[in-house]
Write a structure and sequence with these properties.
Elements: E1 4-8, H1 12-24, E2 28-32, H2 35-44, E3 49-53, H3 61-71, E4 81-85, H4 90-98, E5 103-106, H5 111-130, H6 132-141, H7 149-161, E6 168-171, H8 178-187, E7 196-200, H9 206-214, H10 231-234, E8 239-243, H11 250-262, E9 264-265, E10 274-275, E11 279-284, H12 288-293, H13 299-305, E12 308-311, H14 322-336, E13 343-344, H15 346-354, H16 360-374, E14 379-380, H17 382-388, H18 406-424, H19 429-436, H20 440-450
Parallel strand pairs: 1-2, 1-3, 3-4, 4-5, 6-11, 6-12, 7-8, 8-11, 13-14
Antiparallel strand pairs: 9-10
Helix pairs in contact: 2-3, 7-8, 14-16, 15-17, 18-19, 18-20, 19-20
């Protein structure tokens, strides 16, 4: 069966030329001379692919694409869209990609490039329909469970971004699951057979970041007794996930930008360049626009990374997902810890939903793991939940002082809580950070600011 292609362009000569070329390749071709006519044709006879001009006589191509996206449904999803323009700009290409376009061709369109783009887009569309069950499996494996509007938006962005080559910037509070989103994008991409390599930019000493990213040659610095391959080379053919990208030193940001632009790097202490084929996915809990305005983050790097933005909402903004998510985590925890299955009392789930979850999904995972191990029966009760929540822990000397500024009182209690966790985990900062729902680097910053002893 031949694929049906719809060409939406207000120039008759271009419609005719493209239609003739595609007809010779065996495609069934429909044409429309305006945006409104194209939308009508889409409703009357849904195509397998749309070639859409950016500049039309009535409404522009991005508006057409946006309206196509709004009217798309599960039964009739958005067909693959390839944008065309004789006035192409990077901004327009980025906006088109964010709206779901697969590619962007400049006019005059080269026929060889057109046919290759069309065939590849149709292959991707077919693959997307075939891997529908795989998408659900990957999402659940990565804990992306729920039906809230906030999570649905994340899942849609993941599905759209995964098959493409574009870079993705994942934003959200600490503990919301940004790494899980990055892993899902990798698992659903053509790079899935390749490596998924991670680097937490905040967890590295500034002097070692470049060596970890780009590698180093033997003798590059004291202690460099052999060649070391950096994360970029180890991720060749796969995906590199740069967590907490906002903590990357400015000097390293410039070198990262060059790698993104050129697709090649220089190892520390080296003189030659090394080609790499890596898809970069970055994540941050910072506002990089504000950081760029303050001179702490390169604006050009921000735009290179933020081709497709994915914002992961905090757990409190999708609290309706919590029962399903808690069931999933409890089942997983019981299996992983060789425990008999447990279930939730409905009031226990209500108690979970009443908590604010400042540590987000990471905090929920630790609380549910604790309940899987410590709850005495086969059903977790509301009393079990209240005993396991962080607020249930009583600290010595935790009575409220009679006077003092609010910030000092808050810091005093924060210090006691952190001291309690460090003592409980015998000075193990990683476990203390996990229990508090913090990144380890953030816990260290609080320890230094509050003057907390880390001896345990």
């Amino acid at each position: 069966m031949s694929h049906r292609i719809l060409i939406i362009d207000d120039e008759k000569n271009i419609r005719t030329t493209l239609a003739r070329a595609l007809d010779l390749e065996g495609f069934v071709v429909d044409t429309a001379e305006s945006g409104e006519a194209g939308l009508a044709q889409l409703r009357a006879e849904p195509p397998d692919l749309v070639l859409l001009d950016l500049k039309l006589g009535d409404i522009d191509g991005l508006t057409v694409l946006e309206r196509m996206k709004v009217t798309a449904s599960t039964s009739e999803p958005l067909p693959p869209v390839v944008m065309m323009s004789g006035h192409g700009t990077l901004d327009a290409a980025i906006r088109a990609t964010r709206l779901g376009a697969l590619d962007f061709l400049e006019k005059p369109v080269e026929m060889e490039r057109l046919l290759l783009t069309v065939k590849n887009a149709l292959k991707l569309s077919t693959l997307d329909r075939q891997v529908g069950p795989l998408v659900k499996t990957v999402e659940k494996r990565n804990g992306m469970v729920g039906t809230s509007k906030a999570l649905t938006a994340v899942l849609e962005a993941v599905r759209r971004a995964a098959p493409t080559k574009v870079r993705v910037l994942i934003t959200g509070e600490s503990g919301v699951g940004k790494e899980l989103v990055a892993k899902a994008i990798h698992d659903l991409s053509r790079r899935a057979p390749g490596p998924f390599v991670k680097l937490n930019c905040a967890a590295m000493q500034e002097s070692l970041v470049e060596s970890e990213l780009f590698g180093h040659e033997k003798g590059a610095f004291t202690g460099a007794d052999k060649r070391h391959l950096g994360r970029f080379e180890r991720a060749d053919g796969g995906t590199l996930f740069l967590d907490e990208i906002g903590e990357l030193p400015l000097g390293t940001q410039a070198k990262l930008l060059r790698v993104l632009q050129e697709g090649e790097l220089e190892r520390v202490g080296g003189s030659g360049t090394v080609k790499v084929d890596v898809r970069v996915i970055a994540a941050t809990n910072r506002n990089l626009v504000e950081a760029a305005a303050a001179g702490r983050f390169r604006e050009d790097l921000y735009y290179r990374l933020n081709v497709v933005p994915v914002h992961v909402p905090p757990l409190r903004d999708r609290i309706e997902d919590l029962p399903e998510l808690a069931r999933f985590i409890l089942e997983k925890s019981c299996i992983e810890n060789d425990l008999p299955p447990k279930d939730w009392d409905p009031q226990a789930l209500t108690a979970l939903q009443e908590h604010r979850w400042p540590g987000n999904v990471r905090e929920l995972v630790h609380v549910v793991d604790r309940l899987a191990i410590l709850a005495p029966g086969n059903v977790v009760t509301a009393a079990d939940v209240r005993a396991a929540l962080p607020g249930a822990i009583k600290l010595e000397g935790s009575s409220i002082p009679e006077s003092g500024p609010l910030y000092q009182l808050l810091e005093s209690f924060e210090k006691r809580i952190i001291e309690d966790r460090i003592t409980r985990f015998q000075g193990n900062m990683s476990r203390a950070a996990e229990d508090l729902g913090l990144e380890r680097s953030h816990l260290y910053k609080k320890v230094r600011r509050l003057g907390v002893s880390t001896s345990g």
